[in-house]
Known about the structure:
Elements: H1 15-29, H2 32-35, H3 40-54, H4 60-74
Helix pairs in contact: 1-3, 1-4, 3-4
Amino acid sequence: EEPLQRPKKELAATKKDRVNHCLTICENIVAQSLRNSPEFQKLLGIAMELFLLCSEDSESDVRMVADECLNKVIK
């Protein structure tokens, strides 16, 4: 008898997860305490890359949040 195989858990983040990740990263990247960090430039680059990637997402809600985050970080 073959053991029952459980379906693998989906590794892709859900729409809600992607929106929450963008918002969390945005909130932290604009925090004054992070701006004083020696790692800030590197983290800013990673955050911008993520927002640009999410701005091409198939879900319009994710694209909208990514766009808002880009605008907030740039200002």
